[in-house]
Write a structure and sequence with these properties.
This protein has a 7-stranded parallel β-sheet with strand order 3-2-1-4-5-6-7, sandwiched between helices. Strands 10-9-8-11-12-13 form a 6-stranded parallel β-sheet, sandwiched between helices. 46% of the residues lie in helices and 16% in strands. The protein is an alpha/beta fold. Helix 1 packs across helix 17, helix 3 (72-88) packs across helix 4 (99-111) and helix 10 (225-238) packs across helix 15. Strand 4 (93-97), helix 4 (99-111) and strand 5 form a beta-alpha-beta unit. The protein contains 18 helices and 13 strands.
Amino acid sequence: MSPIKVVFSIGSLHGGGAERQIVSLVRHLDRRRVQPLLYLVYRSGTLLSEVPDDVPVAAFDERYRGSGRPGFLMHGRRVADMTAFLKECRADVSYDRTFLMTLIAAAAAQRADVPNVSSIVTDPSLGFAPVAGRHQWLKKRLLRRLYCRSACVLANSDGAARSAERFYGLPSGLVTTLHNGVDLQHIRQQAAVPVNNVWWNRPSAPGRRRFRIVTAGRLGPQKGFHLLIEAVRQLSDADPNTEFRLAVLGEGRFHDSLGAQIRDSGLSQVVLLTGFQTDAAAWYRQADLFVLPSFLEGMPNVLLEAMACGTPVLSTDCPSGPREILEDGRCGELCEVGSVPALVRGIQKFAADDDCGRRYTSFATPRVEQQFSIQTAARKLEDILVAAATMRRSGDRIRRRRLGGSGSGCEPFDSGGQ
């Protein structure tokens, strides 16, 4: 049987978790089963260079030569262009990641009569409103309809799956969990190379102990980096015998605000905004602690990557992925969301006891290897994509199957063992 053509779609390829996951997936799919293509709204982002050479990339901002402001007219043009692209490349399946891309890609796929697999990557009860923009009630209604007509709806954590069903009013069990995967070999190769940064590598002053903390993610208010910076300020003031250093890896619209906080707090020698780092794993490996201070997450890749590097982790107990990843606190420390004192106490626990981190990593490292490898995620996704394509090739129209009968018209997708 020839490989199926799958169009993977996302807004752009800047360095966020959803973007990194989609690049990693297309890199590891078995080309004997799946031939991936990539469709973007904007051909931009640091991860473009990591797309495999055998994956064609199309982008709306290059294909569309008209003009217009963002809004429903532009949304309609994007749906129309992707519909045309799916027909041009004779796609067997469409796979989209993030709900904003679902609004475009799932609508296009269903218009083109191509089965679509849509991904939910964060808890929508918290993550929808901050990024949905205008007309949220309409977008929520459209998403419910699109999810109900999809061949399969995936979430990257059990918590996000159940929250999505409640938030959008979907039938229980409609959303399937497919955890994110990490490329263990790539991460460990990256981690083995020393970080080339004078500030990070500088020895501590005589008589002081150095304790290096790293965090990573898109610089936005929901990531809680401002709380972590304040926690480090309080720790530095309270413990003159320890030289705390915090490296914040990532880029985003909150950069200037965080920079001002660092300057105003007198932390310019303590906290560094590094920007996006292609060698993030090396920073994780050489840190004493990785901290995730988020208000919400889906299934945070950075937490998995830090665990894969053998670095102890502290995470807020935010909806919905960290508790699942850390096995209710067995593989890392969980603390209260949105609390500077909780972050201070958590960091102090690791700084005061070297054995604390080793106890956690003894459970965390094998868990990542056994449950969260990118190979495992790719094989499971292949099964789902092939099952969706098989339904289409056999003449079982996804839309009629979804909308047939009474009630909501939604029923869980049978992924053949997923």
